[in-house]
Every structure is written in C-alpha cells, then in structure tokens.
Specification:
alpha/beta; five-stranded mixed beta sheet; 4 helices; 33% helix; 17% strand
C-alpha cells in the first residue's frame, strides 16, 4: 500500500476553473503542485513531519471550507490568492485573513517566515493553526517583515 502524504490527506480544494462559473483562479488543478512546494519548504526547514490542514478555493465563496483551515489560499484574481491562517486543526475555530494578495510565485517566501516563527515560538505539541491563532496577525506580520529567508531550521532529529 502506497503511503499518502499527510499534507495531501488533510488538503481539500474546490473544482474552480474551468468548471465553476464563480472561480477567479485555479484551485483543484493547482493544489497538488502547491502541496509539493509546501512539502519542500517543510523538509528544508526540518519539519517535514508536520501535518497542516490546507484548503484552496478559486474564489471567496469558500466551497472547500477555507475559512476553517489552518492554512488556506482563497482565489481573488488571476494567479492571486488571499492567505488565511489560524483555523483549528479540528475545525472548531475560523481562520483570519493574513495576506490580501499573494502571487502564486510567492508561496515559498510567504510561508517560510511563518513556519520559522512557528519553529522558534511554538509551545509543546502546538498545532500550526493553534500557533497562528495564538501569535496573531500582527505578531506574524512583524516577524515576517524582519525575517531573512533561509535563516531558521528546526534542529535535525537523530534517526
């Protein structure tokens, strides 16, 4: 039996383009490549075993329930997404808008500072969404503004 990547297991997207008349950008067809890119960032930061509930939609209508996810990408224009953070991993809290517009090419440089802050400031056993909720938009934005890409990695775990 082939093992399923935890990111893929916890991810969901709406059909979006070309099937939905409301879609402003891609979701279902783009999500697999986003998951691979996110997986690469996690692996490069030595937190490849993290499970993060991710949702992606092609418009703000929210058919894939992005507003409940720990990390969500909500399409709001061609190749642009809002970034939502802080939903509960058990779907008991809504997320909040962190970034109004993120170009598809900016995924890694948007997520790395957030994940670096998560590595440095998370509490024991704290899930990504719970951390984002606790840290808040202002705290994450302030940290991200001064973060130097590639400067933080979790301590490598001995095998």
């Amino acid at each position: 039996i082939e093992e399923v990547d935890p990111l893929a297991r916890l991810a969901m997207a709406c059909p979006a383009l070309p099937l939905c008349g409301l879609a402003q950008t891609e979701a279902e067809r783009l999500l697999p490549s986003y998951l691979l890119r996110i997986r690469d960032v996690l692996e490069n930061m030595n937190i490849g075993d993290e499970e993060i509930m991710i949702r992606m939609t092609g418009c703000p209508n929210g058919c894939a329930r992005p507003y409940m996810a720990e990390l969500a990408f909500v399409g709001d224009g061609p190749k642009n997404y809002q970034v939502w953070l802080g939903g509960s991993p058990v779907l008991t809290r809504t997320a909040w808008p962190f970034l109004a517009k993120m170009d598809v090419d900016d995924l890694e440089k948007t997520l790395e500072p957030i994940l670096a802050m998560f590595i440095e400031q998370r509490m024991q056993f704290e899930a990504f969404g719970d951390f984002c909720h606790r840290a808040g938009a202002d705290g994450i934005a302030a940290y991200s503004a001064t973060y130097k890409l590639g400067s933080v990695k979790a301590a490598a775990v001995a095998a």
